[in-house]
Write a structure and sequence with these properties.
With 342 residues, the chain is α/β, with parallel strands linked by helices. The protein has helices spanning 16-28, 51-60, 64-67, 81-95, 135-143, 150-154, 163-172, 177-194, 244-256, 262-268, 331-339; strands at residues 2-9, 29-36, 70-74, 102-106, 123-126, 203-213, 216-222, 231-232, 235-237, 269-275, 285-294, 309-316. The strands form two sheets. Strands 6, 7, 8, 9, 10, 11 and 12 form a seven-stranded mixed sheet that branches.
Length: 342
């Protein structure tokens, strides 16, 4: 008997495959530690449910006595596997007794299961995949339903989804979040379909601009899906005849009407970083070049939203820590890395 068995997943939503792994963890250990991934993301078609909602689904799928042996650990996406694995190890260590005997429960579904190899100090309890259950297909059926037919859309998946999860999803369909997620799901589906016949999946190149001035950063509110209404850095796709630098200046001007001349921006440029994690964007493979400009104590330039930005605003840097779940894609992480000391 292990002191604790760890189960890592996103559970978007909970299905019987997840439940089989969880029951195995409870059978093999005194305590089941569930690491709930993508914990602080904004709601998107890939991450439609908060970590608290997913924890609720997991608890509701178990008998009451077993719920008492569950420990839920929310874990953010770091877009950096070694850093993420370190964060998981530290969180599990804090939630379990010192020198606890630990096991990791999981199965190797596909390339996304490589994280199971990131914890060599834990025994691996390897299980076979439970049929062909796939949370992505469940989300597609659910979000692709008409406004009045979510129950019917889930019917083919009913044998694979705990009754408590089905009831929760049916209730969620009556919230304001559901139609907004459906709108974004349809946009992303149409976007991918537009290049589905290409011989290879395309790789998109974008630019983003991070301006800091008087301890504030310049952000926009996105006007359109994906990420409609979320905070983001001003930026966009590289035009065919522009350099990266030219694209950065163009997007900054179009989305914020920032009046700074190019020469002042050249003087303020502090860093250029590439962010290329394969899962950083739901549009597909998107590699962005982020330009960091520090205007020090200059007067705050007047800004206003334009083009793809519904709004532009200078936001105090100390406010950013509490805004993680309000950001588009990985922009919160981009800002954190570019503003990190040293």
């Amino acid at each position: 008997m292990y002191d604790a068995a760890v189960l890592i997943g996103r559970f978007q939503p909970v299905h019987n495959g997840h439940l089989a792994l969880l029951r195995e963890a409870l059978a093999r250990a005194r305590q089941a530690v569930v690491v709930v991934g993508s914990a602080f993301q904004a709601r998107t078609p890939k991450n439609p449910f908060t970590w608290q909602e997913r924890a609720q689904m997991l608890r509701a799928a178990l008998p009451e006595p077993e719920r008492a042996r569950l420990t839920m650990l929310p874990m953010r996406d770091y877009y950096d596997e070694p850093r993420w694995a370190d964060a998981v190890r530290q969180a599990v260590a804090q939630a379990t007794p010192a020198r606890a005997r630990l096991a990791l429960v999981g199965h190797f579904k596909d390339s996304s299961s490589g994280y199971l190899r990131a914890f060599p100090g834990w025994d691996l309890i390897r299980m076979e995949r439970q049929g062909t259950i796939d949370a992505t297909a469940i989300r597609d059926a659910y979000l692709g339903a008409s406004a009045s037919t979510p129950e019917a859309a889930l019917a083919p998946w009913a044998p694979h989804i705990p009754a408590a999860t089905r009831a929760w999803l049916e209730q969620f369909a009556h919230t304001a979040h559901y139609p907004a997620l459906q709108e974004e799901w349809r946009m992303l589906r149409a976007y991918r379909n537009s290049w589905a016949c290409a011989p290879y999946p395309p790789v998109f190149v974008t630019v983003d601009a991070l301006l800091r001035c008087q301890g504030r950063v310049l952000l926009i509110r996105r006007a359109h899906a994906p990420g409609k209404g979320l905070w983001a850095l001003p930026g966009g796709f590289v035009e065919p005849h522009d350099t990266l630098w030219q694209s950065c200046l163009r997007e900054l001007a179009e989305e914020t009407h920032c009046p700074l001349p190019e020469e002042r921006l050249r003087q303020a440029l502090r860093a250029v970083r590439v962010f290329d994690h394969p899962e950083r964007s739901q549009r597909g493979r998107v590699i962005t070049h982020a330009y960091f400009f520090d205007l020090d104590d200059d007067a705050l330039p007047e800004v206003r939203g334009g083009d793809d930005a519904a709004h532009a605003q200078w936001v105090a840097q100390e406010q950013l820590a509490g805004m993680e779940d309000q950001f588009h894609d990985d922009h919160w992480h981009i800002i954190g890395q570019l503003l990190a000391p040293g």
